[in-house]
Amino acid sequence: MTGPARERGLAPPVVAHLAGQGYTVWVDPDGSDYLDVVARRGAEIGLVELKLADWRKVLAQAVRRRGWADWVAVVLPRRSLADRAVAAAQGPRTRPIGVWVSDGETLTVVRPAAPLWPAGTVHPFPELRARLELFTDLLAAGSIAPGVAWNLPGAVGRLPDGRRSTREYRLEEFPVDDAPAPTGPEAPSPSRRGRDGRSRRTGPPSDRS
Questions:
Q1: Domain range summary for the chain, segments of one domain joined by +
Q2: What's the pTM?
Q3: Can you give the pLDDT of all 209 residues of the chain as single tens digits?
Q4: Nearest-angstrom CA–CA distance, 34 and 14
């Protein structure tokens, strides 16, 4: 069976899986292709990165995206690619990344997404997390339309340390201090984090479709 010809073709069963667990789901919400799938359930935010073949690159992308979310998963079109990703993603920063397989119609969870940060701790990237919370609040309220650019750090221009591509990153890089910081007047203040200043998480999606 031939899989989807484009990354976006992997998304429908991902959306159905997450929507079935109570998430509101957006595919490429700001039209930049920086965040493939964004899922929101209450205060919880999850990100899903789609890739047709390059499992190394999609893992590196998932590591970079961790500053925005409570959990991250990657989706590949074949089990053989997913198995390679699971075998490689065993370090402290990559082990929580979920690995899923989509053929465009059905979804198989090879490894469930796990929380990126210990429960009850303050999110280590509060400004990034608050910024994505703000934009998804605005989307859910209809205050901004899908496809309106969010100008997220890393989505436009060079990456924070001057590199040209996530391909240049190793999987176990990115200590907390290396996360990109929000820029521009539209960056929300830390007060957007929530009343107690903590990320309010109910847990990543389960492994049941």
A1: 1-195
A2: 0.77
A3: 567 778 999 999 999 999 999 999 999 999 988 999 999 999 999 999 999 999 999 999 999 888 899 999 999 999 999 999 999 999 888 999 999 999 999 999 999 999 998 888 888 888 888 999 999 999 999 999 988 888 887 665 444 445 444 444 444 444 443 344 444 434 443 333 343 444 344 567 765 55
A4: 17
Of 18, 12, 26, 6, give the one whose Cα is nearest residue 203: 18
d(CA 176, CA 42): 25
Give me 203's structure tokens.
Answer: 């847990």
Q: What is the DSSP letter of 139?
A: H
Provide the 10 A C-beta neighbour count for residue 91.
Answer: 11
Helix (H, G, I), strand (E, B) or coil at 57: helix
Torsion of CA 53, 63, 8, 135, to 10 degrees: -170
Extract the tokens encoding 86.
Answer: 């699971």
Token output for 33: 């292709």
